[in-house]
């Protein structure tokens, strides 16, 4: 070879494509493509950032103790079982790199988050994709796919981009039937939005098992996507392994301080969840009334299915909306070529979406 070449398989990875940011030529743009909160971050988090900004010459605390302590107190957990990451993306990557290698398999679901197969392949392992039923994870299909090579199962609950959720009873059943050697990763990035009595994001399951972890993020309801803050709760043995392979200062000081402040501002997060519930309901009703199909969602986004009619398909709607400054997420890469994902926005953005989709459907 004349040039350095990466490990076999790495060039088969399709890079992650983030949501669109721009609508060329349109002055006023609403970005509704990355499930960011329309309400910003807690004022307490912003103040914490300003405080830290006065001492940028100092390394951050490599243990992120203040952040782990805040999470532990608010959620009633032991901080030794918590690990923080540069976004939950980093934690998902650490898990893959620590628990997977060539010859191993990891199970993902049909419309699952695209970071999983990327990290599985990056670790040299093979993703095994199982079917979903009605855009919802099918626990029995996962169990049927388990082989002697299975090392990890990645399960987003709620799912992205579907917005659907798996009842805790099914998650418990999945865990009970999995071999003890398989690590079950419950990705609960949208946990704070879920209003279901049986939903516990997996906390209780982690507490009682050696092979379950739950990942969470500050990028959604806490409004800190720019700072990249994620956390996970897991057995001590798993945390210990990941602490060996992570970078020594994987969270920056702004992220640690802002995350801790945001976690303690529970009133802010609750108000954000209330706002989301209100508009999730209003948008679902309005879009359904237009004749669009909307997958019932427990998150801060809606999956909208377009008619299979010339001029009315998802790419047509995408172009129509983008021309009006409304940026949604195309989800063809998730196996959903005739749907768009809409993040709940400000009142102004949501009303603009309803108005534009009314014009699109009537046009
Ligand atoms: N998991 C799921 C299901 C997600 O939708 C996202 C955000 N797109 C993430 C994990 C990653 O979030 P972050 O890295 O910002 O914490």
UniProtKB/TrEMBL annotation:
It catalyses: L-histidinol phosphate + 2-oxoglutarate = 3-(imidazol-4-yl)-2-oxopropyl phosphate + L-glutamate. Pathway: Amino-acid biosynthesis; L-histidine biosynthesis; L-histidine from 5-phospho-alpha-D-ribose 1-diphosphate: step 7/9. Residues 28-356 form the Aminotransferase class I/classII large domain. Signal peptide: none annotated. Its EC number is 2.6.1.9. It comes from the Bacteria. InterPro entries: Aminotransferase_I/II_large, HisP_aminotrans, HistidinolP_aminotransfase, PyrdxlP-dep_Trfase, PyrdxlP-dep_Trfase_major, PyrdxlP-dep_Trfase_small. The modification N6-(pyridoxal phosphate)lysine is found at residue 220. It is an enzyme of class 2 (transferase). Its cofactor is pyridoxal 5'-phosphate. Gene3D superfamilies: Aspartate Aminotransferase, domain 1, Type I PLP-dependent aspartate aminotransferase-like (Major domain). Keywords: Amino-acid biosynthesis, Aminotransferase, Histidine biosynthesis, Pyridoxal phosphate, Transferase. GO terms for molecular function: histidinol-phosphate transaminase activity; pyridoxal phosphate binding. Belongs to the class-II pyridoxal-phosphate-dependent aminotransferase family. Histidinol-phosphate aminotransferase subfamily. Homodimer. HAMAP family: HisC_aminotrans_2. This is Histidinol-phosphate aminotransferase. The gene is hisC.
């Amino acid at each position: 070879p004349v040039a350095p070449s990466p490990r076999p398989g790495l060039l088969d990875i399709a890079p992650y494509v983030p949501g669109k940011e721009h609508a060329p030529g349109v002055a006023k743009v609403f970005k509704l493509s990355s499930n960011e909160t329309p309400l910003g971050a807690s004022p307490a988090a912003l103040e914490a950032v300003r405080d830290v900004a006065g001492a940028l010459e100092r390394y951050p605390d490599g243990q992120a103790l203040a952040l782990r302590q805040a999470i532990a107190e608010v959620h009633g957990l032991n901080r030794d079982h918590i690990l923080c990451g540069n976004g939950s993306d980093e934690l998902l990557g650490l898990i893959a790199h620590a628990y997977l290698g060539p010859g191993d398999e990891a199970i993902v679901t049909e419309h699952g988050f695209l970071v999983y197969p990327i990290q599985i392949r990056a670790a040299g392992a093979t993703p095994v994709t199982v079917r979903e039923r009605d855009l919802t994870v099918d626990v029995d299909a996962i169990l049927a796919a388990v082989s002697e090579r299975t090392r990890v199962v990645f399960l987003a609950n709620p799912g992205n981009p579907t917005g659907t959720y798996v009842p805790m009873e099914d998650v418990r059943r999945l865990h009970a039937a999995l071999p003890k050697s398989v690590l079950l990763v419950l990705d609960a990035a949208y946990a704070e939005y879920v209003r279901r009595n049986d939903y516990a994001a997996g906390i209780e399951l982690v507490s009682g098992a050696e092979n379950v972890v739950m990942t969470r993020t500050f990028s959604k309801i806490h409004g800190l996507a720019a700072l990249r803050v994620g956390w996970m709760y897991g057995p001590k043995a798993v945390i210990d392994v990941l602490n060996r392979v992570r970078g020594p200062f994987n969270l920056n000081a702004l992220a640690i301080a802002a995350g801790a402040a945001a976690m303690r501002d529970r009133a802010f997060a609750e108000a954000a969840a209330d706002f989301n519930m209100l508009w999730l309901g209003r948008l679902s009703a309005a879009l359904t009334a237009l004749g669009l199909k909307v997958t019932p969602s427990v998150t801060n986004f809606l999956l909208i299915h377009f008619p299979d009619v010339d001029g009315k398909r998802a790419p047509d709607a995408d172009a129509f909306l983008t021309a009006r400054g409304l940026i949604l997420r195309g989800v063809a890469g998730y196996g959903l070529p005739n749907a768009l994902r809409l993040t709940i926005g400000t009142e102004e953005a949501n009303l603009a979406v309803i108005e534009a989709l009314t014009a699109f459907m009537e046009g």
